[in-house]
Design brief:
80% helix; globular; Solute carrier family 35 member E3; transmembrane helix
Length: 313
């Protein structure tokens, strides 16, 4: 049985990990928005920087024996790597084009879309309670978008595409981890360089490489430092998520996620002075209620399933 000092040290490490994840998860949203608003850095190029830094970070991690890489056939990861490109690019385009509140609430639609995909394509069934929680989530997003005075049609198209591709990516990641018997870091280690190569080929067709607004354009030192910092923080987000789930539980990560959701919404309106109407506030509360209800029912069902397995002779 661990001593009091060991338990205190263990709890201290968990608290430090949660705090790090809170800081980097919120920071990456605000920093990327700042880069778009104040520097106009191209979206796909920023995503490419994130992918390259993430792969370099994972390479260092495996050299430090933080995880052991596993040989995987590239052909089985092609679709996953492509969807990874799509979900990050469209999510960043949504952040670039929308207010942080609309961007954050649109991401909440990922849960309903995943349920629809798993129901239609994988014949998975969900309880009535889980299905009912999708009503306040969806209603809240619609309310916020309808009453958003900075409503941007193109931004909503990007948000919708981001939600669709993100949902597909999350479903496929779960399936691939099960199929290939790997954890998230092992999968990302092979996926990140493939996604980087895909974006490297695509960037010249959509964004300039040289001159004003290009990757090799006349950027200020502060802009380049911000972009590099954004890449490092993006890697730290991935690493801290993996550490939290590995050292606590999905329950802790989910509940902590709601806290980050609220702070990001609040911080967006403080930092970027985005207007917020009463109806938008109602929409946000409606979505947050739906997310909390979904998490409560989902975790309850998972605990019930575990109890049945333990009791089975």
């Amino acid at each position: 049985m661990p001593s009091l000092a060991e338990r205190v040290r263990g709890n201290g490490r968990i608290a430090a990990g949660l705090l790090l994840n809170l800081l980097v998860s919120i920071c990456i949203v605000f920093l990327n928005k700042w880069i778009y608003v104040h520097y106009g850095f191209p979206n796909m190029t920023l995503t490419l920087v994130h992918f390259v830094v993430t792969w370099l970070g994972l390479y260092i991690c495996q050299k430090l024996d933080i995880f052991a890489p596993k040989s995987l056939p590239p052909s089985k990861l092609l679709l996953l790597a492509l969807s990874f490109c799509g979900f990050v690019v469209f999510t960043n385009l949504s952040l670039q084009s929308n207010t942080i509140g609309t961007y954050q609430l649109a991401k909440a639609m990922t849960t309903p879309v995943i349920i629809v995909i798993q129901t239609l394509c994988y014949k998975k069934t969900f309880s009535t309670k889980i299905q009912l929680t999708l009503i306040p989530i969806t209603l809240g997003v619609i309310l916020n978008s309808y009453y958003d005075v900075k409503f941007n049609f193109l931004g909503m198209v990007f948000a919708a595409l981001g939600v669709l591709v993100t949902s597909l990516y999350q479903v496929w990641v779960g399936a691939k981890q099960h199929e290939l018997q790997v954890n998230s870091m092992q999968l990302l280690y092979y996926q990140a360089p493939m996604s980087s190569a895909m974006l490297l080929v695509a960037v010249p067709f959509f964004e300039p490489l040289f001159g004003e607004g290009g990757l090799f354009g006349p950027w200020s030192v502060s802009a380049l430092l911000m972009v590099l910092l954004s890449g490092v923080i993006a890697f730290m987000v991935n690493l801290s998520i993996y550490w939290i789930i590995g050292n606590t539980s999905p329950v802790t990560y989910n509940m902590f996620g709601h806290f980050k959701f609220c702070i990001t919404l609040f911080g967006g309106y403080i930092l970027f002075k985005d207007p917020l109407s009463v109806n938008q506030g109602v929409g946000m509360l409606c979505t947050l209620f739906g997310i909390l209800a979904y998490t409560h029912f989902k975790l309850g069902e998972q605990e019930g399933s575990k109890s049945k397995l333990v009791q089975r002779p």
